[in-house]
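Bit of a strange request maybe. I'm writing a small parser for structure token strings and I need a real example to test against, not something I typed by hand. Could someone generate the tokens for this chain?
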Amino acid sequence: MEKDFDAWNERKKETNAESPRFYTVREIWWCRLGVNIGTEQDGKGEWYVRPCVILRGFGSDACLVVPLTTSERDHVLRIPIGMIEGQHARANVSQIRVVDTRRLMRKIGFLEKSTFVKLRKAARDML
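Reply from user aminoacidic:
Good idea to test on real output. This should exercise your parser:
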């Protein structure tokens, strides 16, 4: 599949011009992950977004996120987290990354605390 890096670069310029977002740990946001290299998780659609859970904050400008997937494939690094906007979702722990808060596009909701604790434990165990 051919990746359109040029179109993402235009969206990235627009995203860079925006103001940082306010966020809280455990929130789920549509995040502009963009077009990435190889097996790195890409965003989808016009804005190259993917739902992500905020695992940790690093001040007002950056946070640690884990992207979500609707893939049903069982894997030790894909943690089921329940329904997100009508679809079964799994947190793809192998794709954890730090993002600037300007990549956060729209808040979806909060992850249940007990599920978040399991997700955080899986992330720690991976490292």
